[in-house]
Amino acid sequence: MKKLTAFLLGIGAATLFVSLVLTSCTKTGPAGTNGKDGQNGQDANATCTQCHNFADTIVAKIFQYDASKHASGSTLMEATRNACAPCHSSQGYDEVWVTGADTTATGITDAAPINCRTCHKIHNTYTRADWGIKFTTAFSPRYDHTASIDLAANGGTSNLCARCHQARAASPALTNPLSNTDSIRMTSNRWGPHHGPQGLILAGKGAFETGTASFGNSPHRDQASCITCHGGYAQGNLVGGHTLIMHDVSANNLGDNFTVCKQCHSSATSFDIGGAQTTIEGMFQDLKVKLATANVLDSNTMLLKVPKYYKQKQMAVFWNFQMVYADRSNGVHNYQYTYDLLQSGIDYMNSLGY
User: How many domains does the chain have?
Assistant: First the structure.
């Protein structure tokens, strides 16, 4: 018992000694100067709560965006190919934005879908300026690096969208697209501008200008922008706002979000203002029948019939037809340019007897 008591007293003495030593070594020193709020070397008054306050407006935007096609990441698997990654992943978009290349160095295997950071300057200054659009300047399109696209309306915000919503380069390329004698052999039925050329249609570029049409442009090119229309009046998470959806096909059946159109077209009751969409749809169907009759288009798959030799001018008309098909606005983006693309194709097919 005496040994146990001595042992406990020894432990107690040792603990007291260590406590006194640590206390003398860690006493509070003089107060330092105040640090900067949310600094990152920028604005001393910046705070995280400028953005991370979860006000209802931010909650609404998140709610809307989660319903968008971009947020679904349904085509994200394409990012594993470096030619697809620039538009099918957030990392790919950022990489080519810096390098100016058409492809990423390698495919993206751990890809993120298009998200807030893809389009906005998130955590750049740690202020509300970070909600700004990342890219607003002119750029060179993939189909022709000597050309320039600059959709200047609304501060150039459409240039951000058009960097992905553009045609890919034709492969094989048409070396003489106005020729009705030079032939070219096609081996892929997916030859064409790909699925998202809306930015080029809006800009009035990217098509093969055949025939005598003027290939003019409608006022939308210089007065409207992707954001002012697709990001306009929001109704829940069905249309508008950060859904970027223009037409509701849900059970709610809101139909066309033509409220955004009424800013300029006060009497609008749908997107078919003045029957423009009806006109374009009629012309599109006319050219579709002619191309199918000529054994150029498979009207079931809407793809090219291959393998086969075609006249280069035939392929120019087919390319233009696919531009209109993939645009899917029936002329809303740029009525005059769309009209001229279709009319020049109809005229050419008529000259061949179709």
Answer: 1
